[in-house]
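Notes from the 1:1 (GR / supervisor)

We went over the backlog. Supervisor wanted to see one worked example end to end before approving the batch request, so GR pasted a single chain during the call. The sequence is below; no edits were made to it. Supervisor asked that the structure be written out right there so they could see what the output format looks like.
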Amino acid sequence: MLCPREARLVRRSAGERRGWALALAITLAVVGERALARADAPPDTASLGWSRLPGAEGCATSIELGERMEAILGHRVLVAAPEASMAIEGRIEPSGAGFRATIVVSRRGGEREGERVFSHEGPDCRDATEPLALVLALLVDPEASPLERREAPHPLASRAQRSPSVPTSIDDASDPHDAPRLVLDLGAGVSLLATPFVAPVGRITLHLVFPGLRAFPLAIIATGWTAPFSRAEAPDGGALDLLLAAGGLGVCWMPRIEAWLEGSICLLADVGAALVVGTRALVPDERERVLVFGDVLFALRARLAEAWTAHLALSLLGVGRQEPWTAMGETRFRPEPLGVLVTLGLGFDVGIGR
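Structure output shown during the call:
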């Protein structure tokens, strides 16, 4: 039989055990409730809007970013905007020697979570696809472990394996951004050798660019130029005033030198005319002449702001006819076999492929 003191100690020990057990049960209940709540909560879904500004047409499209983002997370998270719990809006544009992406995240109801800026150094925007997809994946699920899932197959992979016509990787796919774009250039400058003296010249060119051919970017070019006034002086005080105009078609190679700088080398065939539009004390033997030129055009195009560009162009003209212009039986002007056009101007990137 226990003494009163021993009985009190036993009752106290039993009470403490019951207290700890009750506290542990309450804790487990709370933790379990939270775990169940988290397990029952639907995962975040997102809508993705993505824009490539002029100069960034070679960057990943929204389709490519979305596919890579879901492959990193290992499950589908992108849905239509009305069904999404969060909206991701982003754009990418040239910046310095590389590219800058701006991403804005907002929740259902319009609550904005902030803006994030991602910079990529380097001329190839495709190198930014993986880092951008990783950033987007973490925005949707900050607690994910994307580094362990970078090689996870995309949910569409099994479907692609069943259908050989569906590409299994981005590199095998045809890129939506490979659509053509238009670049319009207007320039003014001077002509040499093809005219009797250094004459003013105006030029317009339209490039239809195919940026999807990344290793060898090509363009179709249409051009027109005119030297509206050039005077051939005669020793006796007479003069012939000539107008030259021509237009042509050709192809260009248009490599990107920097994110903001593009070059072009074009081969064209020009057809035009030279006209005598004024005389002084001379009667020309010939008042008009059809001309044919072989045109090699070199140009540098720098992006100024948004779609606006500035360019410097040099054309080497192979003059098809070198017969002299004569008046009253005497030679007044003989074109050189090689002419030069130098123009400086502004352009606009229509960007129909964006």
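Supervisor's comment: The longest strand covers residues 261-280.
Batch request approved.
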